[in-house]
What we know:
It is built from six helices and no strands. With 298 residues, it is mainly α. The longest helix is centred in the middle third of the chain and has 94 residues, at 129-222.
Amino acid sequence: MSDIISGVDTPVSETKNGGDAGRISEVKAWLTSQFDAAGKEVPEFEYTPRSIAHLYNLATVSQAKTKAATILANDFRQKATEYRAQAARIREILENVGLAQESLPSNVVGSAQVLANVANLLNIRDTELSSFLVAMGDISLRKTGVEEKRAKAQKESKVLLDYTRKAIARLTYLKRTHAQLEDDVAPCEAQMENWKTNLAVMASKERQYLQQYSNYKALLNRVGYTPEISHGVLVETGEHRKELEKKTKPILDTLRSYQDLPPDKALAALAIEDKKRQYAAAEKYLEDVLQSALATSD
């Protein structure tokens, strides 16, 4: 690509401002120093505002850390020089008093080495008894604290173990219940399908009965049925009719018997008038009974 340029030899575009040009030069110098230290050449890449900003931040951080590492390394070198000088002075003093390591018995050297190792382990800078006591006291306190934390952790672990056991028992129960429910799914689905079928049949019957009720109601309206003409009223009226027929039957029989008598106009007229009165009384009684029955049904 024409925009791909060398990380070292590519000139900066004239359209860059002074700040961008300064950053690019710093990035180039930093990349050159880093890749030269590794014995490699700077790879080709495209300079964009994003890549320049990212590389500039990396260069800034790297230079700051390199400077801090250099300062720390110089401090360590100075301390090492001072420690070596102090060790040489101590060795010279020990040799002058006849306590050089070569002249000491092996058990003394071993004890001194053990003492030094213990001092390093306790992180103390001298071999004074008080320093050892303080260090041991500190270790004892730390040990006590660790034991307390351990006891607390064991207690919490026991509680968590109890909770875990209960959770496992609950999970087992839930799994068993879930398996049982899965086994009951098929029968329940079959029963639900049966209920659906029955419900559809009942709904169809309901529509049929409602239609029949509407038809019967329309038929009763056409024939003039009213709520007053109920089955109870008709039964009661029929019973009264039977009673009246029983009462009027002797009269009708008597009238029929009069037909066999010889004609006598005066007697016949009296008998007819008497029967008319009896018949009118019977009709009035029947009408009163019907009115009474209708009033009772209301």
